[in-house]
């Protein structure tokens, strides 16, 4: 493999590092807020605005309220609510107070949530009103309070109970290595793992992206991503905060709304689905993009056809980048320079990347396992020290689980995953978790789950099943109905195929590569 030092052809890909003292990430944000604190931070489609002054006061109020309620530094605060400005303030308040923020996907079922509460042992849960009773009955000795927050972000017990609290709070001192966030990601056993993200991880990665993407205070981000995920919460919001800039805050993606707001924006971040759906709208054209500086895509592979069609229609070349829950962003195509379809660009400032073979020998050519190292890489998996140790090399590189290759000019291309992880609509799904549930369905003898190319989702979760001898195959609709009781909707297979037997190699391992090849055109028909 080549050196991405961009100056020397050695054996690792390395870009220059930031030499910045990182403590509480909120202090880093605040040091870069606009001098005029009345400047707009968030604007919603209905015209409601929130200034940086409001941000400072509301985060102080919420941090003080939760501290007075008995939450202390290092305690986890689990949040499962719909997107609103108030959720951003709650997140920042947790950082400010030294709490560990735990965002939970709004699609998680009660079965999944029970695991997260038991494993993470939060001191506080903030949820929708209809989920309050469930969380109050959760089996957790650590849970002190359950507060509610409505979709409007303006009602619920969190807002109502904290309204009279003084907006005075001194930001808690945190070391670089102190935990800021736990994000759950799927694991090889089918049980999600809690990735421990530190204040230093967040600060280093945010500052690297500011440099790489040439973020300016004048930039306006069009934000339509969910905020329980690294893409919408860290990559999007942190760039705005570190830039002291503004974002147009949309509850969810809708092509008509996006087309209406794009002329007011300069930057948009999205998953490939955003771009395919804009292209499907006849009203999307170059004039709509007249003020745009940058379109960024990530969280799932962007098809080359989408890349080319978008450039032809809008006049803009999408910038694709690569990251993961455990590391934040690792690479990016350049703002100034060639953006290549099918590649995720160059290592970010401070990030080293290399490709190795099965024996951990560094490769100079061909496909191998991608490993990364830098201040962006997480601290480890919550309560899983042995698993953490397995995922790092002796010299400190994190094993991403992705297979990649690198060009002579150090552009990295992701070619697959050695752990069969599926990325669908920007969410990570591990097949084993779905297979465990599928195999419990009456009439199902065994199953195999894999991802297939899909125009909208990047990859679609797909399953093949073998029926128990002498039994009638359950209908696809019945299986999906049962799975939806146990799994978040994005994990449920789009299609379920009945086969006589699973294809295996001589060692008895299911050959998912053969399944992917066999059904590769399933969603193109």
Q: Describe it for me?
A:
With 525 residues, the protein is an alpha/beta fold. Among the domains are: 52-174, 3-Layer(aba) Sandwich (Rossmann fold), CATH 3.40.50; 422-524, ANL, C-terminal domain (GMP Synthetase, Chain A, domain 3, 2-Layer Sandwich), CATH 3.30.300.30. Helix content is 28%, strand content 24%. The protein is built from 15 helices and 26 strands. A 9-stranded mixed β-sheet has the order 3-2-11-10-12-13-14-15-16. Strands 1-17-18-20-21 form a 5-stranded antiparallel β-sheet, with no helix packed on it. A 4-stranded parallel β-sheet has the order 5-4-6-7. The protein is globular.
Q: What shape does the CA trace take? A: globular
Q: What is the count of DSSP helices, taking H or I runs of 4+ residues?
A: 15
User: Which spans have pLDDT < 50 for at least 5 consecutive residues?
Assistant: 1-11, 16-20
Number of strands: 26
Helix content: 25-40%
What's the CATH topology name of the domain at 52-174?
Rossmann fold
Major pleated sheet: 9 strands, mixed
Mean pLDDT: 91
As a whole number of angstroms, the C-alpha radius of gyration is: 23 Å
**Separation of termini?**
38 Å
The strand order across the widest sheet is 3-2-11-10-12-13-14-15-16
CATH class of the domain at 52-174: Alpha Beta
Give the second-level CATH assignment, the architecture of the domain at 52-174: 3-Layer(aba) Sandwich
Strand percentage? 15-25%
Q: What structural class should be given to the helix and strand makeup?
A: alpha/beta
């Amino acid at each position: 493999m080549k050196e991405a030092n961009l100056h020397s052809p050695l054996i690792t890909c390395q870009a220059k590092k930031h030499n910045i003292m990182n403590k509480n990430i909120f202090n880093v944000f605040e040091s870069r807020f606009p001098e005029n604190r009345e400047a707009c931070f968030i604007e919603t489609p209905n015209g409601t605005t929130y200034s940086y002054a409001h941000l400072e006061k509301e985060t102080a109020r919420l941090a003080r309220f939760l501290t007075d309620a008995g939450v202390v530094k290092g305690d986890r605060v689990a949040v499962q609510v719909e997107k609103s400005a108030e959720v951003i303030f709650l997140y920042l308040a947790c950082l400010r107070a030294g709490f560990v923020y735990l965002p939970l996907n709004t699609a998680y079922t009660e079965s999944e949530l029970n695991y997260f509460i038991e494993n993470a042992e939060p001191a506080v849960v903030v949820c929708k009103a209809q989920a309050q009773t469930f969380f109050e009955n959760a089996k957790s000795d650590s849970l002190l309070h359950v507060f509610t927050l409505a979709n409007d972000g303006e009602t619920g017990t969190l807002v109502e109970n904290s309204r009279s609290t003084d907006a005075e709070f001194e930001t808690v001192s945190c070391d670089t290595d102190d935990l800021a966030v736990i994000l759950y990601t799927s694991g090889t056993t089918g049980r999600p793992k809690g990735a421990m993200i530190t204040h230093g991880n967040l600060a280093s990665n945010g500052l690297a992206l500011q440099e790489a993407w040439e973020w300016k205070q004048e930039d306006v981000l069009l934000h339509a991503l969910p905020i329980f995920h690294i893409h919408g919460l860290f990559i999007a919001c942190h760039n705005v905060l570190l830039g002291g800039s503004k974002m147009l805050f949309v509850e969810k993606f809708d092509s008509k709304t996006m087309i209406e707001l794009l002329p007011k924006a300069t930057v948009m971040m999205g998953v490939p689905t955003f771009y395919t759906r804009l292209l499907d709208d006849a009203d999307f054209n170059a004039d709509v993009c007249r003020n745009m500086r940058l379109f960024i895509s990530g969280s799932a592979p962007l098809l080359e056809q989408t890349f080319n069609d978008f450039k032809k229609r809008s006049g803009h070349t999408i910038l694709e980048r690569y990251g993961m829950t455990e590391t934040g962003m690792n690479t990016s195509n350049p703002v100034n320079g060639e953006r290549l379809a099918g590649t995720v660009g160059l290592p970010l400032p401070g990030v080293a990347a290399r490709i190795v073979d099965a024996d951990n020998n560094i490769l100079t050519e061909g496909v191998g396992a991608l490993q990364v190292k830098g201040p962006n890489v997480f601290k480890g998996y919550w309560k899983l020290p042995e698993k953490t140790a397995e995922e790092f090399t002796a010299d400190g590189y994190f094993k991403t689980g992705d297979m990649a290759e690198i060009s002579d000019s150090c552009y990295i291309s992701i070619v697959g995953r050695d752990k069969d992880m599926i990325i669908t609509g920007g969410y990570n799904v591990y097949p084993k978790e779905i297979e465990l549930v599928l195999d419990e369905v009456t009439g199902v003898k065994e199953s195999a789950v894999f991802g297939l190319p899909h125009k909208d989702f990047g990859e679609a979760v797909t399953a093949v099943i073998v029926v128990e001898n002498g039994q009638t195959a359950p209908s696809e609709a019945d299986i999906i109905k049962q799975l939806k009781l146990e799994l978040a909707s994005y994990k449920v297979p789009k299609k379920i195929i009945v086969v006589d037997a699973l294809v295996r190699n001589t060692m008895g391992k299911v050959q998912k590569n053969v399944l992917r090849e066999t059904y590769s055109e399933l969603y193109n028909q």
